[in-house]
Transport permease protein (Actinocrispum wychmicini), 270 residues
Amino acid sequence: MIIPQTAGQRLRWTATDAWVLTVRTLTHWKRQPGMIVAGLIFPIVSVVLFGYVFGSAMAVPGGGDYREFLLPGMFGQTMVFGIATTMTAVLNDKSKGVSNRFRAMPMSRSGVVVGRSLADILNSTLELIVLIGCGLVVGWQWRGGFGDVLVAVVLLLWLRFAVVWLGIYIGLVLPSPEAGGLVWGLLFPVTMLASTFVAPTLMPGWLGAIAEWNPLSATVGAARYLFGNPGLTGDSWAAQHPVLLAVLWPAVLIAIFLPLSVRRYRRISG
């Protein structure tokens, strides 16, 4: 095989291999639809549990229906769980020797991790569509225009794309799938310590400040604003500029973990 020499050749090489890896991952999911269903069970159960069981006792700052407050939070939480989903897939490839086979092939090192991220974002789009449909069934609705709804969906997927790179990096660093269980455990407090289920203004002062600056809170707040849902309160800079932060936080995560993931993969591929 002729190794690409110019920047254009290397870019085409990376893009081609990334697409091949994307199709490979999507084919696996197509043959194992239970994986997708399992990923949707938790958010659907949470919507029913919090929306109907606890919803009557939950307060929304400024008034409004709690289910309309809750659903954007569930959309955001599901996107963040992409960390563990991607991490698990990367760890499984390592443990089964798939990564070793990739190393033995004339493949672009960047294309392998880029392909994983592209497959995940396509799967995430499907997840988000299903969750929005479930939200409409339980009484949630958006009150903004179609353009605002589209921007909200893009921001949710933008967050998912960012945390996918964090998941890839963690999967490349951890030694075994068993070690990944710790990450699943940490995701719950991280996603709870945000505006997912409760407005930060109802939390103790120091805890509310942490929750307001959580990247998840920024995306959830932006989604609530764009969907026209209740719960947008707070005097802090973070609470007043959720859309801007929903753009910046994922950009920072991508800027950090995309090059780290590519570098880590290249290092273990030596």
